[in-house]
């Protein structure tokens, strides 16, 4: 009897080990495509960027001379990089809160149960289908000094026209307006999805107790929406740090570097000036910025978020 | 108050819709205008003729660019669906050691901005001789953690009994994946597919780096070319280009809007 149990146990563990091996092998097969692609096009290049940031390179991007922290010292002292950081932070400040407030407002409107509201939802989400290049070209004309609609409107009420894209103070605002418009579609769709997930019963009981619209908004809608808003804030922040196409088409970083956002600065340093070393140092800086934003968001944001 | 509320809402809906949609209507109108009409500062064109559209196709190989964009977007979409589905399947249906660690690695990829890796990626593509090739524009984008999460979320709703039944029936796991899991999760495949197609169609920086002739150049870069060539002279032609570029994605968006909204919200929240 004893022997039989021992035998059974032995075969069971054997089967168990065998299955574990089979599982492990098939898991690897299923995960292999992702793992290879992530390694080749994400983890390896991140490491390589870090490596390059300590070197001087030639035009082909071959690391020649080890310079230690010099690239970092150089960019941290360079006035143009300071400008770029300042422009990027200002840009984040201009686009993220405004963009989310507008999208939230539109989503609240489009969440009302009215006839024909689907049409408005389609209109609001439409900017998601418009590419960066197309949006930027359209807005380039809207900002056109003489023919653009903005200056024509200003002229028709007798004001003096504004050099939207040519004046250092206005250029960043103009790029920000374009970006807010472009991002409305995506944020709107996400927030609307969040609103539709809010439990109807909560509103019914609030109505019975006679709570007004804004009271409901503050006490039910916003708290219930907080996970969605949290997500939209994170995505918008990261997107703002990664802005490139609008800048390339609208201003090329000018005038006097006032719209030289960080990704545009990296692009110019690497692919126009062929300074791969300093461009890599800037890339690492960008990576750290986004890393910190994400961590802070999860650390502080998550606590205030209310999950259903 | 009860009577006024729908009226106020409708008024706000209409005003905001006009503002949000205005740039597209504006571009549409300008695409029918001649240079002199524009100089007069008109808003509505005299007639809706297609001259500017014809010119846009004559000045640049736009049809070829459109085909390139369509091909690249379709390939990336299919690649993302396949690669993400395979990974999501492993996370849901195969209990293996180290699953949590691998999952954490997947999450961490979302924190690496793609722009921070573009310099070595460009060098890699150059060394592989993939500049001006479809491979260079598609393969680097096949793996996305977001896609894996979205599909994983849906796979988790598949009843475990289905998996057990298929195990008993002796179905190989790949057959289960192909015959049961994929048909069951069709809706989230549509969402992820639409998302992948849209984002690839709209890609700008990467094609700017890895294409320097017309062979595989997508239409977004063509639009930039059109804008730099024609800016001073013929805005009507440029706007015709804009309308040509946005029509496919707008149609896709209008068709898949409900899907996309549901799917993205799911991916965002869970």
TrEMBL record, chain A:
Cited Pfam families: BPD_transp_1 (PF00528)
**An annotated GO cellular component:** plasma membrane
Question: Where's it found, cell-wise?
Answer: Cell membrane
Q: Which GO terms describe its biological process?
A: transmembrane transport
Span of domain ABC transmembrane type-1: 85-297
The primary site where this protein sits is membrane
Annotated membrane topology = Multi-pass membrane protein
Record carries keyword Transport? yes
Top-level lineage group: Bacteria
Q: Which UniProt keywords apply?
A: Cell membrane, Membrane, Transmembrane, Transmembrane helix, Transport
Question: Could you list the residue ranges forming a coiled coil in this record?
Answer: none
Residue ranges annotated as transmembrane are: 27-46, 89-110, 122-142, 170-195, 222-241, 279-298
Similarity comment text for this entry: Belongs to the binding-protein-dependent transport system permease family.
Name by which UniProt lists this protein: Carbohydrate ABC transporter membrane protein 1, CUT1 family
Name the species this protein comes from: Gracilibacillus kekensis
UniProtKB/TrEMBL annotation, chain B:
Q: Per its UniProt record, what PROSITE patterns does this chain match?
A: ABC_TM1 (PS50928)
- Mainly resides where? membrane
* TM annotation in the entry: 7-29, 70-94, 101-125, 137-155, 176-198, 235-255
Membrane topology classification: Multi-pass membrane protein
Q: Does the keyword Transmembrane apply?
A: yes
InterPro entries, alphabetically?
MetI-like, MetI-like_sf
Which cellular compartments is it found in? Cell membrane
Key words, A-Z: Cell membrane, Membrane, Transmembrane, Transmembrane helix, Transport
A Pfam family (short name) is BPD_transp_1
Q: Which GO terms describe its biological process?
A: transmembrane transport
Q: Where is the ABC transmembrane type-1 domain?
A: 66-256
GO CC annotation, single: plasma membrane
Residue spans making up a coiled coil are none
Instruction: Write out the similarity annotation.
Output: Belongs to the binding-protein-dependent transport system permease family.
Q: What is this protein called?
A: Carbohydrate ABC transporter membrane protein 2, CUT1 family
Q: Which organism is it from?
A: Gracilibacillus kekensis
């Amino acid at each position: 009897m004893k022997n039989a149990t021992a035998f059974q146990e032995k075969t069971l563990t054997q089967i168990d080990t065998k299955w574990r091996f089979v599982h492990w092998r098939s898991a690897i097969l299923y995960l292999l495509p992702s793992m290879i692609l992530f390694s080749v096009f994400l983890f390896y290049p991140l490491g390589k960027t870090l490596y390059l940031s300590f070197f001087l390179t030639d035009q082909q991007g071959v690391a020649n001379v080890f310079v230690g922290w010099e690239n970092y010292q150089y960019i941290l002292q360079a006035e143009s990089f300071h400008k770029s950081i300042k422009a990027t932070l200002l840009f984040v400040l201009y686009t993220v809160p405004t963009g989310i407030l507008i999208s939230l407002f539109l989503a609240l409107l489009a969440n009302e149960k009215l006839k024909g509201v689907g049409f408005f939802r389609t209109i609001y989400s439409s900017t998601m289908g418009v590419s960066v290049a197309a949006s930027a070209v359209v807005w380039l004309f809207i900002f056109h000094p003489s023919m653009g609609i903005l200056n024509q409107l200003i002229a028709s009420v007798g004001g003096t026209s504004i050099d939207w894209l040519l004046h250092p103070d206005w250029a960043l605002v103009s790029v920000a307006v374009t970006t807010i418009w472009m991002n409305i579609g995506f944020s709107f769709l996400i927030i609307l999805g969040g609103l539709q997930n809010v439990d109807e019963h909560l509103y019914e009981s609030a109505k019975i107790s006679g709570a007004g619209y804004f009271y409901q908004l503050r006490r039910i809608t916003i708290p219930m929406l907080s996970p969605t808003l949290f997500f939209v804030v994170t995505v918008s922040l990261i997107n703002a740090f990664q802005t490139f196409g609008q800048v390339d088409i609208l201003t090329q970083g000018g005038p006097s570097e006032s719209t030289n956002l960080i990704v545009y600065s990296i692009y110019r340093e690497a692919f126009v000036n062929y300074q791969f070393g300093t461009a890599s140092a800037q890339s690492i800086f960008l990576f750290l910025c986004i890393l910190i934003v994400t961590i802070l968001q999860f650390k502080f944001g998550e606590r205030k978020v209310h999950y259903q | 108050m009860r009577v006024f509320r729908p009226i106020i809402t409708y008024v706000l809906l209409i005003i905001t819709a006009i503002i949000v949609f205005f740039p597209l209507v504006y571009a549409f109108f300008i695409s029918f205008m001649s240079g002199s009409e524009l100089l007069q500062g008109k808003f509505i064109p005299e007639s809706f003729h297609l001259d500017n559209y014809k010119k846009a196709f004559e000045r640049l190989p736009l049809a070829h660019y459109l085909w390139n964009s369509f091909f690249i977007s379709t390939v990336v979409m299919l690649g993302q669906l396949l690669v993400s589905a395979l990974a999501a399947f492993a996370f849901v249906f195969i209990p293996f050691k180290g699953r949590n660690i691998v999952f954490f690695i997947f999450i961490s990829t979302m924190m690496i901005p793609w722009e921070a890796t573009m310099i070595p990626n460009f060098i890699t593509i150059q060394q592989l001789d993939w500049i001006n090739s479809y491979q260079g524009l598609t393969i680097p984008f096949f793996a996305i953690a977001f896609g894996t999460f979205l599909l994983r979320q849906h796979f988790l709703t598949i009843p475990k009994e289905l998996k057990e039944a298929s195990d008993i029936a002796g179905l190989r796991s790949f057959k289960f994946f192909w015959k049961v899991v994929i048909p069951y999760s069709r809706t989230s495949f549509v969402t992820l597919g639409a998302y992948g197609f849209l984002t690839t169609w709209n890609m700008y920086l990467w094609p700017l780096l890895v294409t320097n002739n017309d062979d595989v150049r997508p239409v977004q870069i063509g639009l930039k070319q059109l804008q730099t060539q024609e800016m001073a002279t013929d805005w009507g032609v440029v706007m015709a280009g804009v309308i040509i570029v946005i029509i496919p994605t707008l149609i896709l968006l209008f068709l898949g809007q409900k899907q996309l909204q549901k799917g993205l919200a799911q991916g965002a929240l869970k």
